[in-house]
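Moderator note: this is an archived Q&A kept for reference. The question asked for a predicted structure of one protein chain; the sequence and the answer are reproduced below.
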Amino acid sequence: MNYYNRFTQWQQNALSEPSMSDKETTCLNCGHTFTGNYCPACGQSAGVARSTWQNIMKNTMEVWGMGSRSLPRNIVHLLLRPGHLIADYLQGRRQAYFPPVKMLFLLAALYMLVKHWTGQDANVDLKKIHMEGLRTAASMLQYFFKNYYAVFELLVACVAAVSLRLFFGNSPRMGRINLCECVFIQVWVTNMQLILEIALLPIRPYIIVAVVYAITYTYNYIAFKQLFGYSWKSTLWRLVLLTTLTAIIALTILFIVLLVFCIPDFLE
């Protein structure tokens, strides 16, 4: 019980930023001398120095999320304290967290790579599809998911944000949230789902699909409970209604898109 209490206390603590440097630095960009982590005149980091192999490696790692705003660290926190992380981000404590939309595209790319490496990626030949006149909905969907998976996940997040605003728009912990905040919440949730799917991909051929959905749905349940502060029962029925409405809207949009693409076939 003592371990559980320490864990729950850790979950509620936001990620901390590096302490303020007391070293006097002359900014290489504007020449201003200052004390701290960033130049107050132009905003450049005090850590910027002349180009060395170490600096080049550090900058490269920053681009791919391995620097101070570490992507791996954010992944760990997103799995262990998802709702609290999202709350921190919405409440303005963002400097320590990796940008969620950028994270979405990186995770989507990683998901497609792992899916290809594990032999679960459908081999879709674009030329063949064009030769067939895009006759089958399955071919269109396979090609779209293979090449625009991140875009698809972002669109689903936007659709789900509408349902989220309806059922969680005024909660005990977060108060009233707007539609833009709902979009960011769904982007974070999508990132969490992608992390779980990537982790489960190597064993997915050996487990029932329902198990994968059960795991991701349980994580959603925990995340929304932590984020919004409703009771477990209230969170559950709201999440069920959110999922149902999102599925209806998404399927309707998908049906319209497929119908538009397949009109030439229907006319033949």
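Archived answer notes: The CA atoms of residues 172 and 230 lie 6 Å apart.
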